[in-house]
Specification:
Structural class: alpha+beta
Number of domains: 2
Strand content: 15-25%
Order of helices and strands: HHHHHHEEEEEEEEEHHHHH
Largest sheet: 9 strands, antiparallel
Radius of gyration: 27 Å
Distance between the termini: 23 Å
Helix content: 55-70%
Shape: elongated
Length: 360
């Protein structure tokens, strides 16, 4: 059995890596085409575009991991079926359910590796790609999380730690520089509202610095209201919004709590978090469902059929996931139920039919 396990793992690993190389290569090509128009602006060169596209590859692998693993395992089983190796394995007394269990174990191993990639490596490389691109293009806006951002506006550096939406901020610090780029004042408020060209601060602590020959004098002033002019527009702030898919799961969880504490809607982030939680179960359900077709046609199974079947099942996977998300967001249903219901239905049907076929 150990020899069989190693052989199945080797076969499925080969086809999964092949699918990943093709899949990621296609996405990388189209992403590079999108960057061509930016080449030549500021310091953004051909090499910069390549670095940006390569740094974004881990995020692509993670976001499309379910489809990649599904197609890889499906093509691996298709190869075993087309070469009659599955017939030999079953002739040795290995049942269909046992084979399915081994394939699921291999798929779960792949999922574990991809989760590590997506949760710990992809956020770092994606942030690096965005920062590298912004720096090469000479952009002054940068952000490191969904909650806050840094922004340079003339001689004022603005740090927002909490962003409720594109106009209401919390824990705002303004660092004002003089004409010689020396520190002139620091302002802090727990809440600020952006209105056209004005940044309206609530209860504000104003630290005014004045430099003498030997000492720096710091004076503290408290303002119930304080308004300062800014030159950035609403579009610049809205551009800082991150899609929930771009955030690691732990940041999603923190942001859901952050929004709930401030009585703001967090349903879009909940849906994404629950989708990630049920993703391994969804993949297992799709694998079991696809095995029904493979074991049902061992003699005439061809690689073309397996590819076609894999595409259909992949589309079904994406469709069911998106339908559940849309239903939850549109009709205010429970996000966990909307996301998991299609998966549980397919899993129950696949297990029933596969077990029935195994007992024949």
């Amino acid at each position: 059995m150990k020899i069989l396990d190693r052989y199945l793992t080797k076969t499925l690993l080969f086809y999964t890596l092949a699918v990943m190389a093709v899949w990621v290569g296609v996405y990388a090509l189209f992403n590079f085409i999108d960057e061509i128009d930016l080449i030549g602006q500021q310091d953004y060169t051909l090499l910069s575009a390549v670095i940006y596209v390569v740094a974004d590859l881990p995020a692509i692998i993670y976001s499309h991991s379910s489809v990649i693993i599904l197609l890889g395992c499906l093509l691996g089983l298709g190869h075993l079926a087309a070469t009659s190796q599955l017939i030999v394995i079953r002739g040795c007394g290995v049942s269909i359910m046992k084979i399915a269990q081994k394939v699921v174990n291999v798929a779960l191993m792949f999922i574990f590796v991809v989760i590590l990639l997506g949760e710990f490596i992809a956020p770092i490389t994606t942030q690096y790609a965005d920062s590298y691109k912004a720096k090469a293009l000479g952009r002054s806006v940068s952000t490191s999380s969904q909650k806050g951002f840094w922004l340079k506006n003339g001689n004022t550096i603005i740090n927002v730690k909490k962003k409720f939406d594109s106009s209401v901020f919390g824990d705002v610090t303004l660092i004002q520089l003089d004409k010689n780029h020396q520190l002139e004042a620091v302002l802090y408020t727990d809440k600020a509202i952006f209105d056209d060209n004005d940044l309206n601060l609530g209860n504000t602590k104003h630290y005014q610095l004045s430099q003498t020959e030997k000492f720096t004098d710091i004076q503290l002033k408290n303002h119930q209201e304080y308004t300062t002019k800014v030159s950035f527009d609403q579009t610049a702030i809205e551009a800082l919004e991150k899609d929930p898919k771009e955030l690691p799961s732990w940041e999603l969880y923190q942001h859901i709590g952050f929004l709930a504490d401030n009585n703001l809607t967090s349903q879009a982030f909940e849906v994404e978090l629950y989708k990630r939680m049920v993703r391994p179960v969804t993949l297992i359900a799709m694998l079991l469902l696809s095995m029904l077709f493979i074991f049902g046609s061992l003699r005439d199974a061809t690689l073309g059929k397996k590819i076609f079947l894999g595409v259909i099942i992949s589309l079904f996977f994406e469709l069911s996931s998106r339908i559940g998300s849309v239903i939850s967001l549109r009709f205010d249903y429970d996000p966990l139920f909307s996301v998991s219901a299609p998966t549980l239905v397919v899993l129950a049907i696949a297990l029933f039919l596969l077990k029935k076929k195994s007992t024949r």
